[in-house]
């Protein structure tokens, strides 16, 4: 249901984005590309991230605005 909500955007991991995610992983030392992909797009859009795993996302960007569930 969430993915079909009008306010939800599913962003593809294309070549350009994959390279940016790789840079973010390299800078942060965090190897999870999914975490880095979520963080990258949240930062680009100025959005908070809803997560149940705040520690992993903070490893990518410590000051990221999170909503912990």
Describe the protein in words.
The chain is mostly helical and 69 residues long. The chain has helices at 15-28, 33-45, 54-60; strands spanning 49-51, 66-68. Strands 1-2 form a two-stranded parallel ribbon. Helix 3 links the parallel strand 1 (49-51) and strand 2 (66-68). Helix 1 (15-28) crosses helix 2. The longest helix has 14 residues, at 15-28. It is globular.
Q: What can be said about this structure in brief?
A:
Helix content is 49%, strand content 9%.
Low-confidence stretches: none
Instruction: List the secondary-structure elements in sequence, H or E.
Output: HHEHE
Residues in helix, %: 40-55%
Q: Estimate the strand proportion.
A: 5-15%
Largest sheet: 2 strands, parallel
The strands making up the biggest β-sheet line up spatially as 1-2
In total, the number of strands is 2
Shape: globular
**What is the C-alpha radius of gyration, as a whole number of Å?**
12 Å
Mean pLDDT over all positions: 93
The structural class is: mainly alpha
Helical run tally: 3
N-C termini distance? 18 Å
